[in-house]
């Protein structure tokens, strides 16, 4: 009887350990980093970095249009 209880306990322990391992692997799949995802995401920023490294000073500067002074608008307020 004792050997049967030990065998059942060992079987239960092994089952719990397999379930725990499956839970850990599922968590890693859901929330862990993936090399395919990271490389695809990093490519999103490559274009901006390449443009920043290869652009010249004149390409980095945007011209600002000259603004005309605003004329004084007539006032609708009447002294009262």
Describe this structure in words.
This protein is 68% helix and 0% strand. The protein is built from three helices and no strands. The mean pLDDT is 79. It is mainly alpha-helical.
Write the layout of secondary structure elements.
Layout: H1 2-31, H2 35-54, H3 57-60
Q: Are there runs of 5+ residues with pLDDT below 50, and where? A: none
Listing every helix as H and every strand as E from the N terminus to the C terminus, the arrangement reads HHH
Q: What's the helix count?
A: 3
* SS class: mainly alpha
How would you summarize what this structure contains?
This protein is mostly helical and 80 residues long. It has helices spanning 2-31, 35-54, 57-60.
Key attributes of the depicted protein:
3 helices, mainly alpha
């Amino acid at each position: 009887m004792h050997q049967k209880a030990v065998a059942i306990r060992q079987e239960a322990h092994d089952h719990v350990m397999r379930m725990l391992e499956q839970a850990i692997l599922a968590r890693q799949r859901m929330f862990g980093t993936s090399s395919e995802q990271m490389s695809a995401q990093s490519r999103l920023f490559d274009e901006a970095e390449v443009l920043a490294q290869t652009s010249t000073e004149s390409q980095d500067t945007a011209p600002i249009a000259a603004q005309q002074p605003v004329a004084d608008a007539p006032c609708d307020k009447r002294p009262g």
